[in-house]
Design brief:
Strand order of the largest sheet: 2-1-3-4-5
Order of helices and strands: HEHEEHHEHEEHEH
Largest sheet: 5 strands, parallel
Oligomer: single chain
Number of strands: 7
CATH class: Alpha Beta
Bound molecules: flavin mononucleotide
CATH architecture: 3-Layer(aba) Sandwich
Radius of gyration: 20 Å
Structural class: alpha/beta
Shape: globular
Length: 199
């Protein structure tokens, strides 16, 4: 091989490993479906991401699952599920901003809601549904009377920013836990699909 051809071949080979200008997010590829479904989630440490994927699995894997930080364009979707993690009784500002900004492309399409919280490891009750679903997610999405669920989530020290971890570890009896249940998330997915298909 001539020196020039050798260099050219090397450069083409290198190109295959280069990151494109806008690197692609880890996309979740849905299974085929007559209607386009999306799950939009907001998370700090991943519980709401896993909940979203399991909600989609409960629907037969037909929903594409998006992190709100990807700023997805949901205008082409027919049905949307919105889920969020909770810190200090609030959903992340990024989700609030996204829902306010994209009100028009989401309005009338939200078929289900979920929140993921710690709730001191106690089963969520009326208070948590009111605070996380009714007063935040339902208001911001304009969805009323759609299937909704508050799930218990997880604490994983290794996934937290050091200052947050320090504050959390200072709380008496606080420890790592994993209370998120795939079966419960899948059950919500099934419920949302049935409620939507029966209309
Ligand atoms: C700094 C911090 C604040 C939290 N605040 C609350 C809270 O106000 N109420 C609650 O029920 N759970 C609270 N939690 C628990 C989280 O909601 C729970 O760990 C959840 O699984 C986090 O979701 P993520 O993994 O998607 O970020 C808090 C957790 C952290 C780390």
């Amino acid at each position: 091989m001539k020196k020039r051809d050798f260099l050219k071949a090397g450069l083409i080979g290198l190109g295959a490993f280069m990151v494109p200008g806008k690197s692609a997010a880890l996309e979740f590829y849905p299974r085929p479906s007559g209607k386009k479904w999306a799950v939009l989630f907001a998370t700090w440490c991943g519980s709401s991401r896993d909940a979203g994927i399991w909600v989609s699995e409960g629907m037969g894997g037909i929903a594409n699952v998006f992190d709100v930080r990807e700023n997805p364009d949901l205008s082409g979707y027919d049905h949307i599920v919105v889920g969020s993690s909770i810190r200090s009784n609030l959903i992340p500002g990024s989700l609030k901003e996204y829902l306010e900004k994209n009100r028009r492309s989401i309005n009338g399409k939200v078929r289900g809601l979920y929140a993921v919280c710690g709730n001191m490891m106690q089963p969520p009750g009326r208070e948590q549904y009111a605070a996380f679903i009714d007063d935040q997610l339902a208001v911001l999405t304009g969805a009323s009377a759609v299937p909704s669920k508050v799930f218990l989530g997880r604490i994983t020290w290794g996934l937290m920013d050091p200052d947050v971890r320090e504050r959390m570890q200072a709380i008496p009896n606080m420890r790592e836990y994993d209370n998120l249940k795939r079966t419960e998330c899948m059950a919500l997915g099934r419920e949302i699909l049935e409620a939507t298909n029966s209309v």
